[in-house]
Amino acid sequence: MAPFAAAAYSQALSDSENLIFEITLPTDNSIELSTTDGADREENMALFESIELYQDSINNLQLTTNDPYNFELLEQYTSLGDAYKSLGQHETAISNYDNAIQISKIQGGLFNLEQLPLLEKIIQSYLALGDMENATIWHEYSHYLHLENYNAADPEMVEATFTLTQWYISNFFRSNFQSPSQNLQMVDDMISRQPRGTAGMVEDQDIMQQFLANPNQAQFENILNGNIRDINPRDIEHPLLLRVGSIYEELQRKIYAAEEPDIGSIVQTARRIAELSFVTKQEMDFERQHTNFNMNYTNTREQAYRNSQQRMDQSYDSGRNALQYIITLLKNIEARPRFLASALIELGDWHLAYGKIPAAEDSYKEAYAVMQDMGISIEAADQAFNGRVPYQIPRMATHMFTRRSAGISNSARLNYQGYFDVSFTIDGQGNADNISLLASSMNHDEDENEEDESWRIHNLIKSSLRLAKFRPYFNNQTLVSPGQINLRYYYAYAD
User: Fold this and answer.
1) Would 19 be classed as within a structural domain?
2) What is the pTM of this model?
3) What is the distance between the alpha carbons of residues 286 and 294, in angstroms, rounded to a whole number?
4) Cα radius of gyration rounded to whole Å, the chain
5) Which of 9, 201, 202, 302 would be 88's cystine partner, CB 3.0–4.6 Å?
6) pLDDT, tens digit (0-9, with 9 covering 90-100), for 270-293
């Protein structure tokens, strides 16, 4: 039974929505690939033995204490869940974690925070099963526990809110940008909820054609406000992203209403607002690269609105205002110069990501001026801003096929299956081009399925690079092309 379960689990993880890349230089050998040798079999046998021991211990405790909620059982159920999780038997692991949670509630109270590590384990198991709905329920329960223990504006509560909103964004990424079909699932869902064929647009065809030819602000506002028939933003924006926006609005209100608003929470909320704003640009870029041929969507007002320049401008303005607010705040409170320089670089990256080159250069120069006031030379600043691996920008954003887009923590252990060495160039405006595969850990002659996977993963890398923006290198505080870049993309599947 166990080998079959492991095989089914492995098959479930071969989906692109679970794919994660760890990017290094080809010369960096710090990441080990997972193996299926005798050591793995020995480890599995040890896990089966430990399961028997934990189960015996649980049975003995229940018999000797006659107490199904004995505190010692909490550790036993947790360890039993960990063993099943390591074997890929996540449903059984979840059942044991849930038993541990019930004991924790009895011993420590319904809302005790000692449950949180167990909640995270359950979430990761549901994530491995591909059950986003239940993973979301447990994320929301974790947020609820924080609400029962902290005031809304407490830093701990703010961080818990960010964890929840990041999950919503990750869930969106997995089902849209990282979907196996490489289509925006939200567009298909939107059309299925509100089918509109081209024939149904005849009544307002002149208005539609005018907007497509010259999408002026007045027409854009009519669409935005729902004045043209029944279109409004909620028809074309994903419910998860709308929920995140509402949460940030409420969080802002609560932070400012606090007796002593926490500066760190204000700054991080502004950065999160910029992240959410950037998702709009990611959607638009993705939709243009992966054309949707649904006839119920093509040439509709929804498509016109979603791909309008005004929507792109709103995305840019919203994030720019949030990041500019951070800079103004840091200047007003006379924050440490390095914080200000970092915020200015982040604003410069924002401008660059949208192709606003002069504005980006102005922000970068101001950051250099702050660094020089700190006594840091231009050469040292260049080195500080130029990473060994080029930075994908904006830095605060969620990017495809990362731990963040998968909804897993930076500390989670990943089993890396292989790697691809990729070469590309970055121009002075941060665009990747001349993408080519240099090498791969896969042996195409041995396994045709691996060859299929190799083709798929390589194309996902190329697709994500075409959509990405990178910060070029600095030379004497001026943006320059770093030329040819060679990177190694290790890949794993979220588990």
Assistant:
1) yes
2) 0.85
3) 16
4) 25
5) 9
6) 999 999 999 999 999 998 888 766
